[in-house]
TrEMBL record:
One GO cellular component term: plasma membrane
This protein's UniProt keywords: Cell membrane, G-protein coupled receptor, Membrane, Olfaction, Receptor, Sensory transduction, Transducer, Transmembrane, Transmembrane helix
Pfam families: 7tm_4
Protein name as it appears in the record: Olfactory receptor
Family (UniProt): Belongs to the G-protein coupled receptor 1 family.
Length: 317
């Protein structure tokens, strides 16, 4: 931490942090990170294209999946530039305005993804609990309203963060904990009173990740209750099988965040490289794993992918 004796508001420079102790190997470390980012963009882009082009994938579950893919692409676009800036070019400096903008988009797309996962949990609940009314409840109009509400919530919850940061004093140069900007990191570097910022950040998390995770647990509790009421074991298994993809994606989204939180509370200073690795993985893993999970588990997506691939081969020959 640099001295607060020469602190400024809105004109500070932030230094990105890579992997402590591996500075000389940053170029090689960047290779797997780059591959993950490239495959994440390709995978989610293909999912989006398939759902847009194939009429068979216009069902509510796949429309929500397209929203999930869009949020993953947004998250990649928010984190990828500073990773490349640091690992490939060796540039660490980031001005306050760029840092605040990146912070806003990272948190916004994270909240969007969390909201979409909740919407997908509701989709599975309606499909199992009210199968006869599924099409009338989850209409295209209703899904558009849900998507708009998720986006508006993400913007409103994150808008105060960058605005309130501008009133804080920071050292002329501050060292970040990661290779991107996060709200808790910036607040921790401030030289002035941060109580309001911390409170706003806490409220933002509670009304997004906290609320969403609680409602997802409630949805699956009701789903399990409904499934246990089905007489046939075969039908029970069939109903639960429709939830496997979503459950995997939920675990992929929340477990790295939980692991990072535990690591920070245990002793992140004892394992700085591990803390940075976990911090990067909790943003990189969901975007690359979500398309893989749905391609493996969804027969319709596999069929659509195969159909378009065969169609392209016929066109080429």
């Amino acid at each position: 931490m640099f001295s607060c004796n020469t602190s400024t508001s809105g004109h500070s420079t932030f230094l990105l942090t890579g992997f402590p102790g591996l500075e000389a190997s940053h170029y090689w470390v960047s290779i797997p990170i780059n591959l993950i980012c490239v495959f994440s963009i390709l995978g989610n882009g293909i999912i989006l294209l398939l759902i847009c082009m194939d009429p068979a994938l216009r069902e509510p579950m796949y429309i929500f999946l397209s929203m999930l893919a869009a949020s993953d692409l947004g998250l990649c676009a928010s984190t990828f530039p500073t990773m490349m800036w640091l690992f490939w070019l060796g540039a660490r400096e980031l001005p306050f305005d760029l840092c605040a903008a990146q912070m806003f988009f990272i948190h916004a797309f994270t909240y969007v993804e969390s909201g979409v996962l909740l919407a997908m949990a509701f989709d599975r609940f309606v499909a199992i609990r009210e199968p006869l009314h599924y099409a009338t409840i989850l209409t295209h109009s209703a899904m558009a309203k849900v998507g708009a509400a998720i986006l508006v919530r993400a913007v409103l919850l994150n808008l105060p963060g960058p605005i309130l940061l501008r009133r804080l004093l920071f050292p002329q140069i501050s060292v970040l904990s990661h290779c991107y900007c996060l709200h808790c990191d910036l607040v921790g570097l401030a030289c002035s009173d941060t109580q309001i910022n911390s409170l706003v950040g806490l409220v933002s998390i509670l009304f997004s990740l906290g609320l969403d995770s609680s409602l997802i647990v409630l949805s699956y509790t009701l789903i399990l209750q409904t499934v246990l009421g089905i007489a046939s074991p075969g039908e029970q298994l069939k109903a639960l099988n429709t939830c496997v993809s979503h459950l995997c994606v939920v675990l992929i989204f929340y477990l790295p965040k939980l692991g990072l939180s535990v690591l920070h509370r245990v002793e992140k200073h004892s394992y700085p490289a591990l803390a940075v690795l976990m911090a990067n993985l909790h943003f990189l893993v969901p975007p690359i794993m979500n398309p893989i999970v749905y391609c493996i588990k969804s027969k319709k997506i596999r069929q659509s992918l195969l159909k378009h691939f065969q169609h392209k081969r016929v066109d080429v020959f």
